């Protein structure tokens, strides 16, 4: 499928399937899992390619998918339908046969796969993880320990996770059904409609992914992908929020003329637009360069931090320009304002990104 056709396909899916149902999914706390199969039918989960084919990641197509899903106004939908690539690429690096099996199941919407790293005492500092893996005489592994803030953790079919195997940080694949895992919901500020969970593994069966002690190296690679995805999501969310504020300022009549005619509002919109465009240019320039010279830790961190900072400012200003109507639950700018707050934490927090940038200076 050509890139523009793929963009139109995702935009159509957002218009017909996602946008009309968002409020209901937010109210119930979860979107239906059938959404994965519906998206897969249109080859959306596989970036417009044949899911049974030899799937390999493609940054420009992933960017299109994230942009169009973000245009729904809900970042939860991006986390739901575009975050599988990050976990799949861990298997691509380490276990070609498992990768083939999992990607066929996940890209066809038959199964879901999530990444569970965070623990109650360890988010940014993964060296402090306590989840433990043990091998029995046959070489099979079991995991014991906790994970927290896991998107779709209560209902995913597969979990890619990290645990200590003889004190070495190692990745594992956990099949969830009937596998000694307890879960509890954690209602969160944003990304509503996407259930977030606390999990406890009680000697849950697991398969080792990659060599013992190599989790750090694999995660380094896949988290670069995650941060770029989040930068694209933040930049697009800012653009959507800005467009809503611009439209509103032209419609809203104050003192007999559109709000946009007030210089202070017009200049604020100009400033928001400029910041969004600068971030977009930086992200696009980075994506063009990755194809030539590979990923760059510092540049991805800059892209994420700047896109998130601009989003936080724009989302807040968009609510301000809308006045009280920007505070109505479920309105576009209200939802983006809520979601915006999460991005400075997920995928490596703002402070951790600044640490990476400063080390490269
Ligand atoms: C809605 C939501 C969904 C999530 N989904 C997932 C998921 O699916 N899978 C998953 O594994 N995790 C998930 N997370 C967890 C997320 O990745 C963590 O919140 C993040 O890694 C930060 O960890 P923490 O919350 O433990 O904060 P902490 O690491 O305790 O940090 C607290 C504060 O200290 C700052 N800080 C930390 N270290 C330093 C330092 N060295 N220098 C200066 N400041 C520092 C942080 O930036 C932060 O501001 C999710 C979180 C949320 C809110």
Automatic annotation (TrEMBL):
Its cofactor is FAD. It comes from the Bacteria. Residues 2-87 form the Acyl-CoA dehydrogenase/oxidase N-terminal domain. The keyword Zinc-finger does not apply. InterPro entries: Acyl-CoA_dehydrogenase, Acyl-CoA_Oxase/DH_mid-dom, Acyl-CoA_Oxase/DH_mid-dom_sf, AcylCo_DH-like_C, AcylCo_DH/oxidase_C, AcylCoA_DH/ox_N, AcylCoA_DH/ox_N_sf, AcylCoA_DH/oxidase_NM_dom_sf. One of its GO terms (molecular function) is flavin adenine dinucleotide binding. Pfam families: Acyl-CoA_dh_1 (PF00441), Acyl-CoA_dh_M (PF02770), Acyl-CoA_dh_N (PF02771). Residues 115-203 form the Acyl-CoA oxidase/dehydrogenase middle domain. One of its GO terms (biological process) is fatty acid beta-oxidation using acyl-CoA dehydrogenase. The keyword Flavoprotein applies. Keywords: FAD, Flavoprotein, Oxidoreductase. Residues 218-361 form the Acyl-CoA dehydrogenase/oxidase C-terminal domain. GO terms for cellular component: cytoplasm. Belongs to the acyl-CoA dehydrogenase family. PANTHER family: ACYL-COA DEHYDROGENASE FAMILY PROTEIN (AFU_ORTHOLOGUE AFUA_6G10880)-RELATED, MEDIUM-CHAIN SPECIFIC ACYL-COA DEHYDROGENASE, MITOCHONDRIAL-RELATED. This is Acyl-CoA dehydrogenase family protein.
